[in-house]
Design brief:
Elements: H1 10-15, E1 24-26, H2 30-39, E2 44-45, E3 51-53, E4 66-69, E5 85-87, H3 89-105, E6 109-116, E7 124-130, H4 133-142, H5 148-152, E8 158-163, H6 170-173, E9 180-184, E10 189-193, H7 199-217, E11 220-228, E12 234-239, H8 245-249, E13 255-258, E14 261-264, E15 269-271, E16 275-279, H9 289-293, E17 300-302, E18 305-306, E19 313-314, E20 325-329, E21 341-342, E22 347-352, E23 362-365, H10 367-376, E24 378-381, E25 393-396, H11 409-423, E26 426-431, E27 434-435, E28 443-444, H12 447-458, E29 467-469, E30 476-478, H13 491-494, H14 498-520, H15 525-529
Parallel strand pairs: 1-6, 3-17, 4-5, 4-9, 7-8, 8-10, 12-22, 22-26
Antiparallel strand pairs: 2-3, 6-7, 9-10, 11-12, 11-13, 11-14, 14-15, 15-21, 16-20, 17-20, 18-19, 23-26, 24-25, 27-28, 29-30
The protein binds adenosine-5'-triphosphate and manganese (II) ion.
């Protein structure tokens, strides 16, 4: 097979201050990037031919080191908070200068042209410049891949410059420490420094789309997965990290649209990305066959360990991090839709991993309850996912994605609320977390049961069953669901001690109420009515 030879996009790189030499690797194939990573001893192959790397000091995102440059575009429109931290233009200039000088001194760099947004009306061209070939492979896997013809006329809208081995002088550059991810809307530039965690690249692009699409195009951007049923109906699954977006959207009975980031326009939904970034911890072929089988040549696996003396991945081993990951192109999931676009959703699932065992495993929400839950964005972190967490800890993350939302959460909530009401979308809350007691006493809901509940909702079976309202949270709990023991459907009955359940439900209700105080002023009275009510 002949390999197409692409010319190096010299002019644009020069504009960025980069010198052009023959050590720029442009648009290499996954095979070539894999070979180069092996040659540089930056990775190894596992027994199924995937490239396995270590990402170094960072094995997850570092939200405290993410900055947005305060300029004439961002100053008045970004909702400045702990996630959207401002940095001065003068600091940005210094960081960019450090970055370009550093990249120019490297013996080799990797450049890739790609794009995001599967709906051509919203397409954004991205040029990624990497210090490491494996990170360029991540860009190939995760972003959309232009055709040879499209490459001929490629003009990048945005650039990502990534230098994991560079360290910043924090005092000089105005950063917290020597690593940082810096986003400039004026320069249309993302600088990722001192971190080898590939996910920073994808989530910084997500963040800029969360700014540009709702603000300029009236498109709702969403932290959700999406798939399409045999009758053509779309379902979307919102949820914070670890709640099941990737796992539950990979469904042999439905075609995958995307696993993490989508836009909702007046006439469709579309995937931002061209790949999946799945968790590998405790991955089992029987439970998640599609993800398991995607680990093959071209896939990039991060921070796993092998069984000693072998090249077989021990998926149970979380000793480097619980956040072990694999990236692969969407086409590695056999039934992925191409292009990844679908009709507007008929069903929305809010996924929450409730480690307190309070929320029902599936329930139906009124539009007002949906808005209340969406703005709250509740889930729980459990031990292991973050250092220092030994007990479950509740977290509320507005719109199920606060770290990635540059605008005020109210903007996204308003767009979603309007769509749910106007289009009569059904909204479900699914607890993929604990049942029968809190973390440590109860058990995590079985994936098989969660899948059965979601299928029953999607097939309309839950439209014709009896419901009972949750006494504190108000959502409607089905009394029966095919394939699921009925006694699991009402969480109170799964606890050995119902009084302990009531107490826990009351505590969770208080946390919801306290968290909601900061939004209470800006929401309609009906939404406030959907708040949990503690029993006397
Ligand atoms: P991220 O935003 O970080 O990509 P995600 O929402 O895509 O997170 P998943 O990668 O789907 O989260 O992770 C869910 C994890 O929980 C998987 O490892 C899955 O095997 C496990 N799990 C266990 N029980 C369930 C359940 N009942 N439903 C869903 N996932 C479950
Ligand atoms: Mn995911």
């Amino acid at each position: 097979m002949s390999v197409p030879v692409f010319t190096i996009p010299a002019n644009k790189l020069v504009q960025l201050g980069l010198h052009i030499s023959d050590t720029i690797h442009y648009q290499l194939s996954p095979e070539e990037l894999t070979r180069q990573t092996l040659r540089r001893k930056e990775g190894v192959l596992n027994d199924t031919g995937a490239l396995v790397i270590l990402t170094g000091e960072f094995t997850g995102r570092s939200p405290k080191d993410r900055f947005i440059v305060k300029d004439e575009i961002s100053a008045g429109s970004v909702h400045w908070n702990d996630f959207n931290q401002a940095i001065d233009e003068s600091c940005f200039d210094r960081i960019l200068d450090t970055m370009t000088r550093y990249l120019n001194e490297l013996p080799e760099i990797w450049v890739r042209d790609c794009y995001v947004c599967a709906d051509p009306r919203y397409r954004l061209n991205i040029r990624v410049v990497n210090e490491l070939p494996a990170m360029n492979l991540f860009a190939y896997n995760m972003f959309l891949r232009p055709t040879d013809n499209e490459l001929e006329h490629f003009h990048p809208d945005w650039h990502i410059l990534s230098a994991p081995c560079l360290r910043l002088d924090a005092a000089l550059c105005g950063t917290r420490q020597s690593n940082a991810v810096v986003v400039s809307f004026r320069h249309k530039l993302i600088l990722a420094i001192g971190t080898g965690y590939t996910g920073e690249m994808k989530k910084s692009i997500f963040s800029i789309l969360n700014f540009l699409l709702p603000r300029d195009k009236n498109v709702l951007s969403m932290h959700c997965s999406a798939n399409r049923g045999p009758k053509g109906d779309t379902a979307i699954f919102f949820g914070l990290s670890g709640t099941g977006k990737t796992t539950l959207s990979a469904d042999p009975a439905r075609r995958l649209i995307g696993d993490d980031e989508h836009g909702w326009t007046p006439d469709n939904i579309f995937n931002f990305e061209g790949g999946c970034y799945a968790k590998c911890i405790n991955l089992k072929e029987e439970k998640e066959p599609q993800i398991y089988q995607a680990i093959r040549p071209g896939a990039l696996v991060e921070n796993v360990r092998f069984f000693p003396g072998t090249d077989r991945i021990n998926f149970e081993d979380g000793s480097i991090t619980e956040n072990t990951r694999v990236s692969y192109p969407l086409s590695y999931i056999g039934n992925a839709l191409e292009p990844s676009v679908g009709p507007v959703p008929k069903n929305i699932f809010f996924l929450t991993c409730d480690a307190y065992g309070v929320l029902p495993p599936i329930s139906r929400l009124t539009p007002e309850q949906a808005m209340y839950q969406f703005i709250s964005g509740y889930t729980a972190k459990v031990a292991g996912t973050e250092t220092g967490i030994t007990e479950p800890k509740s977290t509320f993350s507005a719109c199920f994605g606060a770290p990635f939302l540059p605008l005020h959460p109210g903007r996204y909530a308003e767009l979603l609320g309007k769509k749910i009401r106007e289009q009569g979308v059904k909204v479900w809350l699914v607890n993929t977390g604990w049942s029968g007691g809190p973390y440590g006493k109860g058990n995590r809901m079985s994936l098989t049961y969660t899948r059965s509940m979601i299928s029953a909702a999607l097939e309309g079976i839950l439209d014709n069953v009896e419901y009972t309202p949750h006494p504190v949270f108000g959502m409607a709990m089905p009394k029966t669901c095919p394939g699921v023991p009925s006694n699991l459907l009402d969480p109170r009955g799964t606890w050995p001690d119902p009084a302990a359940y009531d107490e826990m439900a009351g505590r969770l209700a208080d946390w919801f109420t306290t968290n909601f105080e900061k939004y209470a002023k800006g929401v309609a009275p009906e939404v406030l009515q959907a708040a949990p009510r503690k029993q006397a």
